[in-house]
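Mandelate racemase/muconate lactonizing enzyme family protein structure dump, as promised
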Amino acid sequence: MGKITNIEYFRVLPRWLFVKVTDEDGNFGWGESTLEGHTEAIEGALDEMVQVFTGYNADNIEHIWQTAWRLGFYRGGAVFMSALSGIDIALWDLKGKKLNVPIYQLLGGSVRDKLKVYCWIGGNEPDLETVKQQAPLKVAEGFKVIKMNATSHMDFLDSASVLKSCIERVKAAKEAGLEVALDFHGRLHKPMAKQLARALEPYDLLFIEEPLLSEHPEAIEKFSAQVVTPVALGERLYHRWDIKPFLEASSVDILQPDVSHVGGISELKRIANMAEAYDVAVAPHCPLGPISLAASMQVDCNIANFAIQEMSVGIHYNTVSSLYNSKESYDILSYIKKESHDVFKVVDGYVARPTGPGLGIEIDEEKIREVASGKKGALEDCQVEQTKANKDHTKVKAWRAMQFHGPDGAIREW
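structure tokens r here:
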């Protein structure tokens, strides 16, 4: 029957959480449950799901998803849905490998031959010189579109000079030959967001991401009506019921659900189909690891309203040395075998449709286990900690989001 016999999870650098599901016949698949800054909470949720789903038929992906959703009574939210995501993705990978087909074939087949992609430049606190240095490098890597943070952390009412610096960075990226999207990151509040959006209109941005926090749907609806630049959001919406009011209000042009936050491939596919009925495009959020990216790409191949895919290659969060005092850095190729590297190769702004079974990538399990265990030589000076879960493993220290404070000492949005 292919009953699930083992569900494991692995905390790895720079800030990712991978999941492996194995059935009684030895078939296995990989998923990703990364929820940035909340690793231990996800591990706790996964511990519960291991107890529930061990013994279930691994082929019955929808039954497992619905059981997780309905059996728990309390449902939704970032932690629960991210834990479910890792298991769901792993089950799709397992099934695709067992049947020797890409996951998109199981979803109904592909509608495109290649996928438009973009990457990040700059950092959490972007500056003009960094953009000038990085933009030409991304062009040389094959990218045609980049995204960067619009501003550093801001107060409710802040200096207009911060807005001017944003415009200078946009101009620099465009001069390098790149299209530009800007992530407001929910850092700006209404007074500043309105000013910046208006100031940026002459520069033809691809989209503005999270101009305001999604917890303010009424403000986003009004904001969207005031600007001509497409409005994107969705990384902090965790299932189709979260997304429904934004579709009904016609306040979002581009949805950005994250396959590792919304309940996996199963729910991402449903969200995309629902958005298509409202003429809303989907550009999956993915500043995460290679499994999350590969899972997003499988859905991208299948859905009609796909727009563009985020890739975390070179993103500032992947610089381990700045987070863990480690000499080693980790990126989206670090945990996949060399023969899979071309799956993420960018040519003229696109990656080719993956062709391998399941997720289409070969995971380097030995590397994952080495890093997750904290063995000497894998992390050098990286901090490690003993955790309650998986007591036989010493795990890398969980990643934490930066804290930003204003000059008055008050906390500001990350």
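Residues 104-352 form a domain with the TIM Barrel fold (CATH 3.20.20.120).
lmk if u need the other ones
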